[in-house]
Design goal:
This protein is α+β, with helices and mostly antiparallel strands and 285 residues long. It is built from seven helices and 13 strands. The chain binds zinc ion (ZN).
């Protein structure tokens, strides 16, 4: 399942192919992904210019000149590929080679300038929606989202406010999308390790300096992962134009029994709210 940094990497890869370009031709090859495509989807986006490619939490948001937002969630296996195509001088059109998995290429955009953007999703947990741009805050998934982890609103002071009086473990509190948007299990584990905080501690019991440290750690792990993803964009573009998935080296996530990178003692695993937490009981107090 792609986490926020992967989605941001996809956004950065899509931006040069889509921003400022018109969707000259759109095609959907089945009526639905996780949900049906919006009504009259192809007609509503054909001819639209993509004025900006943004991201909110784990959603891609293409702002269209028609006043709609094109919202895409990658689900579990959704990925985009970009193909530059070759101009056929005889027919005056761009010709694109078939992708490596044409069976699961469900949505295709031919952008002005000749770039083809293809959405491939083998398991079809991804979905696409159109929503009025001016009312984006009312989109159900966005309505009660907390701040982005790499925004100025997300800080120790903000955590102090939202954690006040909370008896839930800090790990579970961090996964609450009202607290911070788009933080998944992996980055919650990594951030707590970096901040040296026991994941079982009650969120409301943490004091100011530790919350500052935690907010800082969240921002850092996300920014580093985005940076790592960013460095893969050019590789992807050279290889097969695929965007979205890359391997990080994590300190604790999925490392049960491995030596802790700080102290060498084995990383432990526990289950909180049905999710695995990986942590070092020596460094996280
Ligand atoms: Zn350790």
């Amino acid at each position: 399942m792609p986490e926020l940094p992967e989605v941001e990497t996809v956004r950065r890869g899509l931006a040069p192919a889509m921003e400022g370009k018109r969707i000259e031709r759109a095609e959907i090859r089945r009526p639905d992904l996780r949900f049906p495509f919006p009504e009259n989807f192809v007609q509503r986006i054909t001819g639209a210019r993509v004025t900006a490619m943004r991201r909110r939490a784990k959603y891609l948001v293409g702002e269209l000149s028609t006043g709609d937002a094109l919202i895409v969630h990658l689900g579990m296996t959704g990925r985009f590929t970009i193909s530059h195509g070759k101009k056929d001088r005889k027919i005056g059109e761009f010709v694109h080679e078939a992708g490596d998995d044409p069976k699961h290429d469900h949505m295709v955009f031919d952008m002005s300038g000749g770039v083809r953007v293809t959405f491939n999703d083998a398991r079809r947990f991804g979905f696409v929606e159109l929503w009025p741009l001016a009312e984006l805050d009312t989109y159900p998934a966005f309505a009660e989202l907390g701040p982005e982890p790499i925004s100025n609103q997300f800080s120790g002071a903000f955590l102090k406010e939202v954690f006040a009086g909370k008896k839930t473990p800090v790990k579970s509190a961090l996964l609450d999308q009202h607290v911070v948007a788009g933080i998944g299990n992996i980055y919650a584990c990594e951030a707590l390790f970096r901040a040296g905080i026991d994941p079982r501690k009650h969120a409301g019991a943490l004091r100011g300096p530790r919350l500052e440290k935690l907010a800082h750690a969240v921002r850092e792990v996300i920014e580093e992962a985005i940076e790592a993803g960013g460095s893969t964009i050019s590789d992807f573009a050279h290889a097969n134009g695929e965007l979205g998935y890359f391997q990080h080296r994590f300190c604790v996530y999925d490392k049960e029994g491995d030596p802790c990178p700080k102290c060498g003692k084995p990383i432990k695993r526990l289950v909180q709210s049905g999710r695995s937490t990986f942590w070092c009981s020596h460094d996280q107090t």
